Amino acid sequence: MVRRSHLVDCGYTQNDIRAALTSGELERIRYGWYAQPGAHAGVTAAVRSGATVTCVSALSFAGVWSPVWFDKLHDVVHARRTEYREQRTLPLQPNVHICANVDRDARPCRFALDAIEDALISATFCQPFEWLVVLFESVLHLQRLPRRRLEELFGSGSSRAARALAVSSEQSESGAESLLQLGLRRRRVRFRQQVRIDRDRVDSLIGDRLVVEVDGEQFHSSSESFEADRARDRRLIAAGYIVVRVTYWQVMSDLDAVLDDICRIVQRGDHLFPRR
Ligand SMILES: [Zn+2]
């Protein structure tokens, strides 16, 4: 997706652009905007609607873990309208969702896709508290923005974004892990993340000995990691730990059942080493 002004800046003439349109190398999406064949349908729809892709959709393109990955079947692109009033009259394409943007004029839409900072700002208007935590934790874990910058953008006051940032850590390695930690916190179960036990490092440790591991989406993609995980479980169990392994889909689709079972173990006191 490219703006006409960018093509001109790169030295293309009016004739070059006309020739590319005739040959099918470029398609005109709206006034001043062109796409190459195979451009992402969602981005194309947003630009056709006079909008910029933002929020969870832009974050997903940037490799940040976002609910779009879970929700992709719905195929909706989150977008914000450009600063140009006349473009706001363009018909909204059916798969484009405009996120609330009260400070739209402070954030001009020069590109088809928002960078991480603007995408996060849009998300604070659109996403519930839990997903804000997931997004912040993913950005922090992937080191896409330093915490200091996030605090400048969102950290002050008692807004939902400030509260979400305050509970976000760098340690969650996936969105599913973030959601599980939030669930544990809601149930007032105390845990530590990324704990080293002898030669192994575990996702979460509850009490003395209850280890909770969240398998990633691509779990079992390599037999090497399958072997390594099983060997680690064996070492931990031999040392007296209880290992609970939950999958990405269990966290995403049945978190309450996962939390109920963890709470049953804690209520029995099995998360503590027996006192002799
Ligand atoms: Zn949104």
**Largest sheet properties:** 4 strands, mixed
Average pLDDT rating: 88
Q: Give me the secondary-structure category.
A: alpha+beta
Order of helices and strands: EHHEEHEHHEEHHHHHEEEHEH
Please explain how this structure is put together:
The chain is an alpha+beta fold and 276 residues long. The protein has helices at 4-9, 14-23, 41-48, 55-61, 68-71, 116-126, 129-141, 147-154, 160-166, 175-186, 223-238, 248-267, and strands spanning 2-3, 27-30, 33-35, 51-53, 77-81, 96-98, 191-197, 200-206, 210-215, 242-247. It folds into three domains: 1-39, no CATH class; 48-166, no CATH class; 175-267, 3-Layer(aba) Sandwich (Endonuclease, Chain A). It contains twelve helices and ten strands. Strands 7-8-9-10 form a four-stranded mixed beta sheet, sandwiched between helices. β2 (27-30) and β3 form a beta hairpin. The longest helix has 20 residues, at 248-267. The chain is elongated, with a radius of gyration of 23 Å. The mean pLDDT is 88. Zinc ion (ZN) binds at residues 55-56, 78, 99, 122-123, 126.
Produce a short descriptive summary:
With 276 residues, this protein is of the alpha+beta class. Helix content is 44%, strand content 17%. Zinc ion binds next to helix 4 and helix 6.
